[in-house]
Amino acid sequence: MHPPPRRTLSRVAAVTATALALSSAVAVPANAADVLLSQGKPVVASTTESSSLGGDKAVDGVGTTRWASAVSADPQWLRVDLGQPSTVNRVKLTWEAAYAKKYRLEVSDDGVTFTTVATVDNGDGKTDDLSGLSGHGRYLRVVGTTRATKYGYSLWEVQAYGTADSTGDTQAPSTPTGLAAGTTTASSVALTWSPSTDNVGVTGYDVLRGGQVVATSATTSFNDTGLTADTDYAYAVRARDAAGNTSAVGTAVTARTKPGGGGSFVLAAAGDIADRCTASDSNCVHPKTAKLVEAINPAAVITMGDNQYDDAHLSDFRNYYDKTWGKFKGITHPVPGNHETYDDTPFKGYRDYFGPIATPQGKNYYSWEMGNWHFIALDSNDFTTHDFAEPAQVAWLKQDLAANTKGCVAAYYHHPRFSSGDHGDNPDSAALWQVLVDNKVDLVLNGHDHHYERFVPQNAAGRADANGPVQILGGMGGAPLYDVHAAHPTTAKLLQAFGVVKLSMTDTSFSTQLIGLDRAVLDSSPTYTCH
Fold first, then answer.
1. Burial class of residue 346, CB neighbours in 10 A (0-12, 13-18, 19+)
2. SS3 letters for 222-282?
3. Residue 235 near residue 181 (C-beta atoms within 8 A)
4. Which of 58, 245, 343, 414 has the CB geometry, 3.0–4.6 Å to 172, for a possible disulfide?
5. Among candidates 290, 205, 190, 181, which has minimal Cα distance to 504?
6. Which residues belong to any copy of the F5/8 type C domain (predicted)?
7. Strand pairing of 232-241 and 470-474?
8. At a CB cut-off of 8 Å and minimum separation 6, what does 17 contact?
9. How distant, in Å, are the alpha carbons of 422, 455, 511 from that of 528?
């Protein structure tokens, strides 16, 4: 919560020589050819106070929307991806009443290693117009180091001016045409449109729902999910290029979701989550993915193992996982990974922390239901021993599937059958996968390899087969990412990226999205009909 905004925000603060320390030995004047580089660009924030005060609000060009950090310890930061390497000569910051007394501006080529281009040590909460800068990089970061109030940090706008390395590209792409709504369900609308043209090249398309950008797609299609049944939605699309030029918004279309869908709901899922770090460390990821879960507002949360690193002691769960993803403990349906076995007594910290929700049927594996969906939570540590005797868990699984009366089935466990990541395929679980295929399971979720990978439906041999399950590897919940290798023939999407999988379920279908740290949709599946 922040105090009401000041009425003097439009007044520009004079930044004195003592307040502004340039990293360059020589300050260069602002260039008359400078353009606004930051508006509408992807943003990542260290924290956000709420989903309505996200970092994107600080670069949307609207003076009445803002980013607000959580009310927490210093430092806090906001990072803008300018889209390409650029020279930054001027940065204008419009502060809300919760402002920074001390802060710095940084630039980076890779978003990891930053160089300071300016520091301010006596901020007064007005509008700071910092010119004469000499920074070069793709990423600009505003780092608040000392708060002036008991609240967090809050910015109405961050405006970076300069020149992109692709100097002279001021031509916007052509306006997208041919927008059409295709398949609709009670909770999703599939959109397609014709490609735009550009003098250099189109890099993506903003999808607008009700006039607000809800996603950015690299292709000429998008599946909007998590919608309300029997409801009209207005869509439009605009194109953008690498220099930040955006086209006019194309002609809007209206689509209506199908009626019914009383069993529709949204879930959030990820594996390999809490490293031993906290939000005070700007490189700590699991607090950021927890914010994504909060924004998704799911009916339930699925975790695909390795919930806590490194040895999953109870103290680690309490010190790290509990402070972020622990907020959703009451609606979480977890499974263990290999790291849960590394405790002094295997699984002890995991079981002590989660309590009965980890073993609702007395074992590490169990099933639960929501709507017309039957969910099966498995302990895949049984399938990594190279002991090909059938585990008791398989006999239980067969009985559980035989007793199921729901129309749609999902299974989730830690070690994936197929993976293009560091660990690769797990042949020890071939018998498990065969059971899932034989019983027409619709969706399988895994972790273990620290990347994102979505497969097309495939059979027991790993070949594309519409009758097989869709496998999603979601090991990007917070632990450091792993390298990926050559994709499988059945891989639909392979990404080295942090995020959370959003699952939109109806009584007869499902669709999935990967939501990245900047809340952009990094992948969107088709809508699948349950077997």
1. middle
2. EEECCCCCCCEEEEEEEEEECCCCECCCCCCEEEECCCCCCCCEEEEEECCCECCCCCCCC
3. yes
4. 245
5. 190
6. 25-163
7. unpaired
8. none
9. 28, 13, 6
Both structure tokens of 371: 């709507």
Q: Which amino acid is at 318?
A: R
What gap in Å lies between CA 518 and CA 43, rounded to an integer?
Answer: 5
In whole angstroms, give the CA distance from residue 44 to residue 69.
11
For 325-383, where are the E strands, in sequence order? 332-335, 366-370, 373-377
Sequence-ordered list of residues with C-beta below 8 angstroms from that of 264, at least 6 positions apart, any chain: 186, 187, 229, 371, 504, 505, 506, 507
Q: How far apart are CA 381 and CA 358, in angstroms?
A: 15
Phi, then psi, of 28 in degrees rounded to 5: -105, 145
Among candidates 418, 112, 159, which has minimal Cα distance to 283?
112
In the three-class reduction of DSSP (H, G, I as helix; E, B as strand; rest coil), residue 296 is classed as helix
The length of the chain, given as a count of residues:
531
- What is the distance between the alpha carbons of residues 309 and 318, in angstroms, rounded to a whole number? 12
User: Terminal CA-to-CA distance of the chain, rounded, Å?
Assistant: 47
What pairs with residue 239 in β-bridges? 205
User: 176: left (phi > 0), else alpha (psi -120 to 50), else beta?
Assistant: beta
pLDDT 10s per residue in the chain (531 long)? 444 443 333 333 333 333 333 333 233 334 547 889 999 898 999 888 887 888 999 998 888 899 999 887 789 999 999 988 899 999 999 999 999 999 999 999 888 889 999 999 999 998 999 999 999 999 999 999 999 998 899 999 999 999 888 756 778 899 999 999 998 887 889 999 999 999 888 989 999 999 888 888 888 999 888 788 888 999 999 998 877 788 999 999 999 988 765 678 999 999 999 999 999 998 999 999 999 999 999 999 999 999 999 999 999 999 999 999 999 999 999 999 999 999 999 999 999 999 999 999 999 999 999 989 999 999 999 887 655 556 889 999 999 999 999 999 999 999 999 999 999 999 988 989 999 999 999 999 999 999 999 999 999 999 999 999 999 999 999 999 999 999 999 999 999 999 999 999 998 999 999 999 988 899 999 999 999
Residues in a beta bridge with 442: none
Rounded CA-CA distance 441/372 in Å is: 13
Helix and strand numbers (H, E) in the chain are 5, 31
Q: What gap in Å lies between CA 165 and CA 191, rounded to an integer?
A: 33
- CB atoms inside a 10 Å sphere around CB 390: 13
